[in-house]
Each structure stands twice: as structure tokens, then as C-alpha cells.
Amino acid sequence: MMMNEPRHFANQLPALRGQWADNVAMARHVSWRAGGMARRAYTPADLDDLAAMLAQLPVDEPMLFAGLGSNLLVRDGGFKGTVIFLHAALNTLRVERLPGVAADQDELIYAEAGVASPKVARFAANLGRDAAFMAGIPGTVGGALAMNAGCYGAETWPFVLQVCTIDRQGRRHVRTPADFEIGYRHVAPRDVDAQGEVFAAAWFRFPAQETSVARATIRTLLEKRVASQPLRWPNAGSVFRNPPGDFAARLIEATGLKGLRVGGAEVSTVHANFIVNADGTATADDIETLITTVQSRVAAATGVQLIREVRIVGDAASSSSSPKA
Ligand SMILES: Cc1cc2nc3c(=O)[nH]c(=O)nc-3n(C[C@H](O)[C@H](O)[C@H](O)COP(=O)(O)OP(=O)(O)OC[C@H]3O[C@@H](n4cnc5c(N)ncnc54)[C@H](O)[C@@H]3O)c2cc1C
């Protein structure tokens, strides 16, 4: 439960305007609806408040930035640090124009990290821009930047002109795509000094498209998703990256693993690259064990080592050690 009352070191940070909570059940904040507790969580009031909070947080406090948790699992032993929730916080979404450029020639969309990606798609369509692929990604802009999320042949970073990042001390930086190594579901800063930075906002440049066409594309894309994905059960989208020239789902299905279960976790019978929390009882350990089982059985059958796309953090249930990414 979110509370205004600061706790622990948090009551040493009096100028903050956001909300602290202790012992937060992360299953309520990730789309798999499974996993452990976070020792504490903070929802900033806005970007300035986040900067102030980071400037004051003890340097050795482990931190986890979370968007909508649609690609995230916290192990059953929990995350012994502070989770920072951006979804309800960094919500600015607006049009910006580059100085000195005619209004309709370079209309950028400025979106803070907590804005939901589908909202960017609809906002762009209303402006006569095509960001339809973002409608199929049920996370935030921050998560899309961190993952280089994409679908139906498009991905996030080719549309990014620049980003605002924030470092561990709360300082903001404007960076361009050239500052990052960007690949398929992979983004890493080139400069080691930038490695602790997270995404606070991005300026996107999407191609022009008639509003009616952009809206129709969004509708078609969502219909395809509903028809092909097991959306009735908690899941985190595709669990594994597609290996070069192939599809993880094809390899998993060819290995005969559709329907394979560990506890409450099941390889979806609808889409083999999805693992669903089939009856709501899966633990994070069930899910992670099923992931490693799928990896070893696919490797044994096909020789292909599947690489996990979903992010798993925190401690195993029996462990009391510090968090691992
Ligand atoms: C039904 C379903 C369908 C999906 N389809 C797709 C798809 O087609 N394509 C696709 O790419 N993904 C897909 N996903 C996965 C997921 O939606 C994307 O990866 C999404 O971009 C994650 O965003 P999020 O805000 O939920 O991030 P989270 O899950 O909250 O976090 C994911 C990772 O990003 C980090 N992170 C979050 N915010 C920030 C930030 N501001 N700065 C730095 N790091 C941050 C987190 O620490 C974590 O490591 C799907 C998921 C589901 C459930």
C-alpha cells in the first residue's frame, strides 16, 4: 500500500513530494502477477522530485526502475532495495518543435518515461504521425527505451532524436542515439560513466501519416495481437529473443514444449514463446525454472541457445544475499 509517511532513511529526505511505501508486493506491479516483495518503493511526484530523491538517496542503496512491469520479474526472496515506479509519475506527453524550424516540418513528440507506449501511438495518430507499433507494447516509454522494444517490423530507437537520462546523483543529461549501443532488444551506453543512468524522457520523430490511416493500423495491429497471444492469462510477452533467422516460438514448439508446466507456470499452448501464470498460482521460481528448462531442452534438441528477453532481478526465496540483476 502506498503511504505518504516516509520510513527508514526516507525520513531523512524531507524535501521530497513523492510517495514512499514499505514491503511492496511486486506481484501487483508486474504483468506476470508473481514474485517477491520490494523492501521499499518510491513514486516520485515529477522529474524534479525524482532528481531530488536520487541526489539524496544513500549511494549504496540498490535501486530498480520499473515501468509497467511487462518485462520484469522479481524473485520470490524479494528485492532488498528501493523500487522506483515511474508510470504514475513521469507522465508529460506533448508536441515540441525544434527552434527555427517551420511548425509542421519538424514536429517532435516529447514523452516522459512513465507514459504508456500505446498512449504515444494514439497521441501520434491524432497528430498525423505513425507510431502504430507502439500500440502493441504494453509498457512505458522508459521500458521501451531500455529494451529497444518493437513489433511488426519497427522498433523504438530509430524514431528517437534524443533522450533525457538521469544519473544516480540526480543530474540530468541529454544524449543522442549515437551515445548508445543499440541492437535487437538491447541498449547500452557507450560511455562507462553513463552506465548508471536511466531514461527520464525522449524526443521522438515519427513519420507523417493520415490520422485515419494511423488509427486503422493501430486497430489492425491490436486485433492481430488479440488473435495470436494468450492475453487471458498473466504473462510478460515474449520470454526469449528470436535467434538470428529463426523464431524462438518455432523452436520451442518443434521441441514439443507447448503446455509444459512447472508449478503454476506453463508454456502457452497459444504462443510458445509466452509463459503464462496459468491459474494465478505461479511463483517467480516456477517461472524461472520453466525458463531454464525450456532453454536446456531447446538447446539439446536443436543446438540453439535461447537468450532470455525478460529481466529477472532480486533474491531467490531461500537466499538472503544482496540483489542480482
Ligand atoms: C502481452 C505482452 C506483449 C508484449 N509484446 C511486446 C512486443 O511486441 N515487443 C516488445 O519489444 N516487447 C513486448 N512486450 C514486453 C514489454 O511490454 C516491453 O519490453 C516493454 O517495453 C517493457 O516496458 P515496461 O515499462 O513494462 O518495463 P518494465 O517491465 O517495468 O522494465 C523492463 C526493464 O526496463 C528497465 N526500465 C524500466 N523503465 C526504465 C527507465 N525509465 N530507464 C531505464 N530502465 C528502465 C527495468 O529496470 C527493467 O530492467 C510484451 C509484454 C506483454 C505482457
Fold and architecture overview:
It is a single chain. With 325 residues, the protein is α+β, with helices and mostly antiparallel strands. The chain has 3 domains: 8-85, Uridine Diphospho-n-acetylenolpyruvylglucosamine Reductase, domain 2; 93-227, Uridine Diphospho-n-acetylenolpyruvylglucosamine Reductase, domain 3; 238-309, Alpha-Beta Complex (Uridine Diphospho-n-acetylenolpyruvylglucosamine Reductase, domain 1), CATH 3.90.78.10. It is built from 6 helices and 18 strands. The strands form 6 sheets. A 5-stranded antiparallel β-sheet has the order 6-7-14-10-11, covered by helices on one side. Strands 1-2-5-3 form a 4-stranded mixed β-sheet, with no helix packed on it. Strand 16 (265-267) and strand 17 form a beta hairpin. The chain is globular, with a radius of gyration of 20 Å. It binds flavin-adenine dinucleotide. The site of flavin-adenine dinucleotide has 33 residues, from strand 3, helix 3, strand 8 and strand 14.
Q: Any chance you could write out the topology, listing elements then pairs?
A:
Elements: E1 19-25, E2 37-43, H1 47-56, E3 63-66, E4 72-74, E5 79-85, E6 93-97, E7 107-112, H2 117-126, H3 141-147, E8 150-151, E9 154-155, E10 160-166, E11 172-175, E12 180-183, E13 186-189, E14 198-204, H4 211-228, H5 248-254, E15 261-262, E16 265-267, E17 275-277, H6 284-302, E18 311-313
Parallel strand pairs: 2-5, 3-5, 4-18
Antiparallel strand pairs: 1-2, 6-7, 7-14, 8-9, 10-11, 10-14, 12-13, 15-16, 16-17
Bound molecules: flavin-adenine dinucleotide (FAD).
